[in-house]
Every structure is written in structure tokens, then in C-alpha cells.
Design brief:
The structure is a homodimer. By secondary structure, chain A is mainly α. The first copy, chain A, is about 65% helix and about 10% strand. Chain A contains seven helices and three strands, in the order αααβααββαα. The first copy, chain A, has helices spanning about 10-15, 20-35, 40-50, 55-65, 70-80, 100-120, 130-145, and strands at about 55, 85-90, 95-100. The first copy, chain A, binds a DNA duplex through helix 5.
DNA sequence: GGCATATAGTTAGTTAAACAACTAATCAAA
DNA sequence: TTTGATTAGTTGTTTAACTAACTATATGCC
């Protein structure tokens, strides 16, 4: 029984993701306090667009680990906020290429600073090598379940 | 700078909790396949009630790390499913004590088995000592942000 | 007793996730 | 070239999270 690492009563927080929920809530509060009118989910889409925009909604699905309806609605809301624009592709008219507006580009620096700040608060007093192990475990978990 | 453990580009999955999302989705699929008509959130409430029922909604808030409106609605839906009952306390009439029905008690064993199964799949190929480190890190993160 | 304050829970409104069913465009193969 | 399958994206429905505003009960203090 090589993998019975969880006895009853220990599995709750692993499944419910208490830690990542707490991180997301803290970051959301920082956004609100800084008058960054963004949800964490919207930020997670912009995060990938800041690295490269002009990608399709399907590529955003893969990058953000969300399904297509979720991305449709997130892009809807980001468009309402005038942070992105849908441009239908000329090569394949099924596809929408998603582009950032200048407004959205301006938000990158401030929001990324708040994200790093949040993670540093979250990881206070955790030795770097343990953080590394934790990251690796979470990556394996993700790969195991895909 | 003792805590700058995250360079840009590494923080995304920590914040978005990709791993715990994947675990929850896998467990939900197992519930559906087993005709357990339960959401993961409903299960997370039952999880605490199986340990002890007859507790207040506020105690459920603390146990499940949710706010009061969330618990109100979860209890609403669990009541519709006839899995719990609200009984207003005689000592303090503001409080609802939440009790399991027999129906709900019957679901404990099967659902907990599926939860353990899910975690074992998630943690396949992860050495037990690394799982331990990961759990400790996530606990510290949670404590740091409370 | 009466008033302020705190606590328990509910309601309303917005955003998002999951799933199923759908449209439209593309591609592949007979 | 037309038919069938695949891919990209949208829409509808249910469940849930978060905030703010609300009701009702309890408590503490004068």
C-alpha cells in the first residue's frame, strides 16, 4: 500500500484547497484596496495575455485550466470592462483572437506586485527548499489527474 | 529578502490552486459516476457533520472556512435534498442546530472511500515524506493568511 | 427597565464554474 | 462535392462565493 498517505480526517484541506483559497482571498482584498477593479479569475486571464496576447479563447482555456463556457463569460466581462477585445481570425473564422487594450496593459505592473506580495506573505517562515518540494508535489498531483 | 521565493512566472498555479481544483473535479466525477447526488461543497459540509452534528451554522462556517451566506445556501440545498435538518436552539433562539438525516448518514462510507481513492490517485508516485512537507507548507500558508 | 452593541442567520445582487445542448466554420473522405 | 466528423465558441441552467444590507435575538451597561 504505497500510496495510503492519508488517513481519515487528514484529507479535508487537501481536497478543499484551503491554502489556495486563502491566497486568492488575500489577493482579492489587495486588489480592492488598491482600487484595481478586477476579480482573481479575470486577473488569471490577463496574466496569460500579458505574456502574449492575440491568442484564441481555446488557448486561454488550456492556459488557465478552464472550460470554454468559463472563458466565454470571462472574456465577456473583460470586454465589458474594456480590458480586452475579440478580433475574429482571418485564417479561421471560428476563432476569436483576444487582444489587450492599453487600459489592461497599464494594470500589469501593479497587479503583479500585489500578487508577489501576497505570495511572500503566504510563504513567510517557510524555508525555500520546502516551498520547492511543495511546488513539485502540486505539479505532480496536477499531472496525475489530467 | 528572505521570502522572495517566487520569481515572476512561477506564481500562477500557486495562486489559482490548480492542484486542488483538479482534485475536486476528479472527486466530483467519482460522485457522479457512483450516483452520489452531491456537490463537493455539500460533501465538505457533511464531512464535518459526520464527525459531529447538532452544531450551529456559525460552527460550520468556521469548520469549512466559508462565510455565513455560503453556509445558509448550502444548508438550504442540503435541506432540500433531505440530508440535514435545521433545529432552532432552545438556549439561544438565534441559532440553528444542524442535524443529519439517516439518508445523509448512509452516504458517509461510500463518499469517504471515493475521497481517499481520489487522493491516492492524486498522490501516486509522490514519496510520503514529500507529501508530508507539502501538507505542512500548506498549513503554514493557511495560518499565515488567517 | 431601556438603550447600545454584538451575534446568528437571511436576502439580494454580481461573478464564476460545471454541464449539456447548441451554432457555425472547417476538414476529411467517399 | 457533398456528407460526416471535428473544432471554436455561445447559451441556458444550477450551484456556489462574496459583499452589503437586512432581521431577530441576546448581552452588557447606565
Amino acid at each position: 500500500m504505497p500510496n495510503n498517505q492519508f488517513k481519515k480526517g487528514e484529507l479535508y484541506s487537501f481536497i478543499t484547497g484551503k491554502a489556495s483559497t486563502a491566497i486568492a482571498r488575500r489577493l482579492q482584498k489587495k486588489f480592492n484596496a488598491a482600487n484595481l477593479n478586477l476579480t482573481i479569475e479575470q486577473w488569471s486571464v490577463l496574466y496569460h495575455l500579458w505574456k502574449q496576447d492575440g491568442i484564441s479563447q481555446q488557448e486561454l482555456c488550456n492556459a488557465t485550466f478552464r472550460d470554454k463556457p468559463s472563458i466565454t463569460r470571462l472574456v465577456d466581462n473583460l470586454e465589458k470592462l474594456k480590458l480586452v477585445k475579440r478580433v475574429s481570425s482571418k485564417e479561421d473564422r471560428r476563432m476569436n483572437m483576444i487582444f489587450l487594450t492599453n487600459e489592461a496593459r497599464k494594470m500589469e505592473e501593479a497587479s503583479m506586485e500585489l500578487a508577489e506580495e501576497t505570495l511572500n506573505e503566504a510563504l513567510e517562515k517557510v524555508p525555500a527548499d520546502q516551498v520547492e518540494v511543495c511546488k513539485q508535489v502540486l505539479q505532480i498531483v496536477y499531472d496525475n489527474l489530467r
